[in-house]
Design a protein that fits this description.
Blueprint: H1 3-10, H2 24-35, E1 46-51, H3 54-68, H4 74-80, E2 93-100, H5 106-123, E3 127-130, H6 133-138, H7 143-149, E4 158-167
Antiparallel strand pairs: 1-2, 2-4, 3-4
Helix pairs in contact: 1-5, 2-5, 3-4
The protein binds flavin mononucleotide.
Flavin mononucleotide binds next to strand 3.
Length: about 190
């Protein structure tokens, strides 16, 4: 198995991080990997917001939990009451990929960029976890204004489509869940 496929198979979502920050050169390489993802019509309709400020990450996670209090989803309401849950797992870096909502396929473009970044991070020994909370908050009526109040402003016409935390794992990498069988059809 080649190195690229090994990296794909060994990437896992990590939910406990050391406080040690990622080197600037590593985060920049990860961002370049994101920017080389394919995009519909070659649009590259994205913007990458990198949050390394611990105070801001903390404020954002409190905002997420506060906003989950009114969620229609019972598990999110439950999560909002739990002091032991940090929606960003105390990771030192959060990256949000926003995209121009008027582009051809911005959701897919931004998600592909994020997957490139998760894999690039894994290849550098840096762990990651997709975190959906920023997008959930953004989707609430007061979300965009609340995020803006914290200083999270996206370019004009942009919507956040993908977010993930990055850092060094504070625990051994979890095992991958078994893959579901019978999910492939070959038509010959
Ligand atoms: C669209 C999407 C949303 C996700 N949201 C979260 C999240 O909010 N918090 C979290 O801890 N993991 C989140 N995950 C990570 C998944 O839980 C994880 O990928 C899945 O359990 C498989 O584990 P693995 O990534 O280690 O293979 C999300 C993944 C995707 C694709």
């Amino acid at each position: 198995m080649n190195e690229t496929i090994q990296t794909i198979l060994k990437r896992r979502s990590v939910r406990a991080y050391e406080s040690k920050q990622i080197d600037e050169k590593d985060i920049r390489q990860i961002l370049v990997a994101g920017q080389y993802a394919p995009t519909a019509m070659g649009d590259q309709p994205w913007h990458f917001t990198v949050v390394k400020n611990n105070d801001l990450i903390e404020k954002l996670q409190l905002l997420c939990k506060a906003s989950f209090k009114n969620s229609d989803i019972p598990s999110l309401r439950e999560l909002s009451t739990r002091d032991d849950v940090h929606v960003f797992y105390h990771a030192p870096t959060l990256v949000i990929v926003s995209g121009d909502s008027k582009a051809v396929a911005p959701l897919w473009d931004c998600v592909l960029a994020m997957e490139n970044m998760l894999l690039a991070a894994s290849s550098l020994g840096i762990s990651s976890c997709w975190v959906h909370s920023p997008m959930i908050v953004y989707g609430t009526p007061e979300g965009p204004a609340s995020l803006s109040t914290l200083g999270l402003n996206f370019p004009e016409g942009h919507v956040p489509y993908a977010a993930a935390v990055f850092g060094y794992s504070a625990q051994p990498l979890p095992e991958a869940a078994p893959r579901k069988p019978d999910t492939v059809t070959f038509l010959k």
